[in-house]
Amino acid sequence: MAFLMRFVTGVLLSVGFSAVLHLQGAHSPQRWPWRYKTYGDSHDGTPVVVIPGLDGCTSFWSDVIPELTTSHRVVVFYLPLAPGPFDGASTGGGVGEDYSFDLIVTSLQSVLTELNLPTVHLVGESFGGAVAQHFTLQHPDNVASLSIVSSLCHTEVTPIVQFKLNFLLPVVSAIGNAFPGLAQHLFATFHVDDVVEKFEPSWMRDFFVKEAGWAHHYSVLARIKIILRLDICEQVESIQQRTLVVYGEHDNFTKHGSLELLEHLPRAEPHALPGGHLPHLTSPKPFSEALLAFLASFAEVAP
After folding, report:
1. What pLDDT was estimated at residue 301?
2. What's the gap between Cα 217 and its chain centre?
3. Staple partner for 96: which of 82, 172, 174, 284, CB 3.0–4.6 Å?
4. 37 beta partners
5. 3-state secondary structure (DSSP) of residue 268
6. What per-residue confidence (pLDDT) applies to 28?
7. How many CB atoms lie within 10 A of CB 157?
8. Global confidence as pTM
């Protein structure tokens, strides 16, 4: 009974808090003007641009960025936000109907232009890895190398994930029309089993739910729509940049996609790490060492 009371109280507080944020317009993209953040600005040479995953959680890189900034300037790219159902910015086809990989690529290109960065090392995590592939296909001269973490070139979902997409996501999406904050917390709770394996430490589950639960809900829905349609394996065969493909040895979510990616990228270099979908979070030191060794193999020329 005590647990039930705490659960009901938590839900009611979440609903109330979400309603206040919604009425204040806190979920509108116009309330989030930031597009990037830079670290290690004193370093010369080709910078590293980090593209986060589906939820846009840059906090998953908090233990990696300090390692990278020992030798590189780092730009953390913030994925653009999608309009919600009441923002008046959509063309009427639903949440994030105009959201696309092309839109994200254009946003990233504008950031590089603003920072005067003609060439960068791209590092993309999961959804961000798909963004990195699209960017390289459209702007090959701007990319010195690719590092793709737990990502794919063609989306195939497991029966469990398909069940969530068919039955749980519509319920969460409906709740999100009125209470996006609560809906995103529910989504993070449903999604955590996909990205955190059962044998991984409990702090990872708690950390993921906490961070992903604060993500911009309408943007997450929009990104799900476009990642489900991803099918660019034939196109990425034209990518000539050396590519580090990192994946978790026990990742049941995207390891198959990473292995498929290795078959299509002509200059791919695999690197497996212990754990599941988030090896940079569970093994930040080994991940950083592998990434820095890969980057060190390039002759650095100041942009």
Report:
1. 43
2. 14
3. 82
4. 76
5. strand
6. 56
7. 13
8. 0.89
Q: Whole-angstrom Cα distance, residue 280 to residue 56?
A: 15
CB 161 within 8 A of CB 256: no
C-alpha distances (whole Å) from 262 to each of 209, 230, 275, 288 are 30, 16, 19, 20
Residue-wise pLDDT for 45-56, tens only, equals 999 999 999 999
Total residues belonging to the chain: 303
Confidence of residue 1 (pLDDT cuts 50, 70, 90): low
CB 136 within 8 A of CB 239: yes
Q: What is the DSSP string of 48-101?
A: EEEE--TT--GGGGTTTHHHHTTTS-EEEEPPPPPP-TTSS-S-SSSTTTT--H
Is the pLDDT confidence value at 93 over 50?
A: no
Neighbours of 301 (CB within 10 A): 10
**For residues 32, 33, 38 and 44, what is the CA-based torsion angle, rounded to 10 degrees?**
160
Residues 6 or more apart in contact with residue 242 via CB below 8 angstroms: 145, 146, 267, 269, 294
User: Which 8-state DSSP code applies to residue 47?
Assistant: -
Nearest to 183 by CA among 92, 84, 281: 84
Furthest-apart CA atoms within the chain: distance in Å: 64
For the segment 210-235, what is each residue's pLDDT rounded down to a tens digit? 999 999 999 999 999 999 999 999 99
Task: Please say if the pLDDT value at position 6 is more than 90.
Answer: no
Structure tokens that stand for 301 in this block: 């020329």
Task: Find, among 212, 180, 50, the residue nearest to 122 by Cα.
Answer: 50
pLDDT over 80 (residue 4): no
Look up residue 27 and give its DSSP letter: T
Contact of 135 with 155, CB cutoff 8 Å: no
Segment holding 124, helix H or strand E: strand 120-125
HSE-up of 124 (CA within 13 Å, CB side)?
A: 27
